[in-house]
Design a protein that fits this description.
about 425 residues, four-stranded antiparallel sheet, about 15% strand, 12 helices, Aminopeptidase, 2 domains
Amino acid sequence: MLKVFILLTLIALCVSKKAYDGYKVYDIKCKNQNELKLLEKFEANEAEKHELDFLSLHNNVNDVARVVVKPSEQRFVENFFKQNKLDYEITSDNIQLAIDKEFEEFRTLSQSKSDELRFDRYYRYEEIERFLNKLEGSNDNVKVENVGKTFEGRNIKTVTITKGDGKSRNSVFIDAGIHAREWIAPAMSLYLIDQLTDSKSNFSKLLDLMDFVIQPVVNPDGYDYTFRFFRLWRKTRSYQSIVSCRGVDANRNYDFEWSTAGASDNPCAETYHGVKPFSENETIASRDIIERIKDKCKFFLTFHSYGNYLIYPNGYTKDLPENWEDQDEVAKAGADAIEQATGTKYRYGSVSNTLYIASGASTDYAYGAAKIPIAICMELPGGGFFGFDLPASEIENTVKESIIGVQAMVETVARKYPN
């Protein structure tokens, strides 16, 4: 099996070389709001047409925007920057080199015969499944469920972790990996599961406060695809009206203010919202979990990357939610805890006012439709050449730092909404 696994990884490397060779990464620093609005308009009008992948574009002048551009479009993009006097820097001449390095590191680390979960490497989805099944078999307080099938037939799993004393507590629902290329998000969910189920860990004491329902990888098909073929794939893998343009942005597919703003009706776009709300098996599975537990669920938390943000509804409008002060208090607790412990700063606020407008997102659905009082997206730190390629050597420090914020937020929610 190990030889087969390595062979598949090598095949992925060969295909990957065909995918991103010569692609450049551009970082743009806007000097004022006018330049920022100009760049936002450029992204809205030209990204789909020229296949530009904006990895980050936030509505704050101080944030660096980042875009990946294929070779045939680089002259067009650079001319636009120069004509409009936008300051830019080419941070990578060929991101395939970074991808090759990342996959070589993955190939080397995956040859380890250790059965223990480690946080110096990323895991394929089939490995994650094996770990979860083994965990359930060895821990009476863990229940692993198959809650659906992906478009390509993979199991969609959730893990329920309780204290095991028979008491029903309020719960927190946590998911990760809705965007396939954000590898650190599933790694964070695995670390949290590992710590909650380790009786020697201080974080296991969180089970005194709340039950945990965790969906480690929302989008298994897309996640697997990033290992085998296209590292920067974001969406699901379902067939759309144009066969060559597969997949839906699952975080634009939830049935709350669906397709109202900040999502695309172009099947080839990175933010394509799908033909209808909950068109994807993956979002249907998440919806069904949320609907099942919503009466006792007080906290919805979703892991993304990258950018050091703790953001809450609303995403579809710049209007704040009715309980924005409660949401802000919880987000601030997480940000403060991380900064006090490590010095790392997180920005917090509503999605639309802190990052950008986005409709049909999971946090808006959790708060607006399911009426879960606190719904937060944690954008974990980035790294590497294009942000999503956080080196494996930095996983452990990242998850250990991030769980401090999770602990503070869970404790704050538990105080606000006692059992």
